[in-house]
Amino acid sequence: MEQNLKSPNSFHVEQNKQPYTRCLVCGSSSIQLEQECPDHFLTKEVFSLMRCEDCSTLTTWPQPLPHKIFSYYASDNYVSHNDSKKGFINRLYHLVKVRALKNKVDLVGPLLNNLPLLDYGCGTGDFVAVCVKANIKATGVEPDPGARRVAQNKGLDIFEPKDIVNFDKRFGVITMWHVLEHTYNPIELIQNLKAQLTEGGHLIIAVPNYLSYDAQYYKSNWAAYDVPRHLFHFAPNSIHAISKITGMTLIKTLPMMFDSFYVSMLSEKYKNGNVVMGALSGAVSNLKAIKNNNYSSLIYILKK
What we know:
Helix content: 25-40%
Mean pLDDT: 91
Distance between the termini: 44 Å
Structural class: alpha/beta
Order of helices and strands: EEEHHEHEHEEHEHEHEHHE
Number of domains: 1
Strand order of the largest sheet: 6-5-4-7-8-11-10
C-alpha cells in the first residue's frame, strides 16, 4: 500500500471512531478484519473492511457520520449523482446505461400488476424517467440534495427519504439499484420499504458482490468497494440473511453483466493499469461466474 495514502494532509471529515465490535446488519459479535482499503475516488483515506462471520457482510469502518457523508460525494466525477460525462469511462457508463435501463424496465414490468413503482435512491432520476416514458407510474426518493434537484428539474416526482411515511399509496415494486450499500441501517430501511409494498409486492435490490472474480483479482483496488461511500459490502449469503431478518422471501437472483466491465476498467485506473486489461478482466469475471453465479453485481428479487 502506498505511503501517501496515510498522509496527514489527506481529506478528512468527522467519523465514528468507536471500535467495531458488533455487526450493524445482524448483530453478531463474530467480527474479523478482512482488509484495508483506500478511498481511491476522492480522499486517499484508508478504511477497514470488517467481516461478519455470521451474515458475511463487510462493513466499512470507521464510517463518516451521517451529516458529513455527502462531503465524500462532492465531486463532478461522481457520475450517478450529477450525470457527468467527463472522461472515457464515464462516457462509456452513459452509453451502456441506455441498454441497462431498458433491461430494468423489462424486469419490473411483469411484477407491477398495474401498481405504482418506487425507486429508492434514484440519483438523478434516470430510471424513474424511463419508467414514466413506458407508462409506469413511478416515484423516486433520493437522499442527496444535489442529485434530487437534478431529478426534480427533469419534471419527475422525487422526494426526500423522510417523506416515505406520508405516502398514501402501496407500491407493486420498490427498486434499489446500487443503493443498499450506501445506507446506514439496511435492516431498518428494508423494513420501512416493506411496509410500503402491497401484499405480494416485490423489492428489487442490486448490489456489488465482493465474492466475484474481479473483486478477488483487484482486492483493495476493486472500484466497487468505493469506501466510504459504500458503507456495507454484500455477498449472496448477506442478502439471504437480510431477507430472513426482515421476513422477506428471496425468490430469484440475476446477474448484472455490464457491471464487471465498468468496475474492472475503473479498478485498472485506480491501480494505474491498462483500461483495455480492465475490459478483459471484466469478461473473465463473467465467464467464471457462469459456474458459481458470483457476478460482479447481482440483482436480488425479494417478495413480501
